[in-house]
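ESCALATION

Customer reports they have been waiting on this structure for their group meeting. Please prioritize. Original submission:
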Amino acid sequence: MRFGVCLNLKNIAMTQYRNFDFNSMCMFNGVPIAAGSSGISSLNDAEKDNTTNIKSVIELRTSNFGVMHPKRFRSFYVGYETSGSIKFSVTVDGGTTAPFTLVPKKTGQIQHMGKLPLSRAQKGTYWMYKIENVNGCDFSLDHIQGIPIILSKSR
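Update from on-call: job pushed to the front of the queue and completed.
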């Protein structure tokens, strides 16, 4: 298995590239470029690897949001840009919930705002989010926002 890491030094955002035939990467005229035995590729333009959709996944770190008590969220608001639908999975205290799919209301890769509905049954101390593209679409995540409802220890 091949594995490459690209680090954005401005915001310390990391991107991982797996199973690509790259042996070097660089930024040329503002375009990320990767090179390998099969040639040179622009990483901005790729939505498919040959004929296969490129899977993109973001897993945010597990957090208790600075509060050790269990908590619940009524919903999360997500700011994002995408060329298609994106799928969110929420893990609470190690138990994964059914994924939510956000389908953009506007066409094109423009700014969107979406709402992830959560159930009252989703409560716990530690929360983690996994975001995936659907059918190889391109996306970027701007923010996830929610207001926690802090529960007593007895719940």
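Sent to customer with the following note: Residues 57-150 form one domain.
Escalation resolved.
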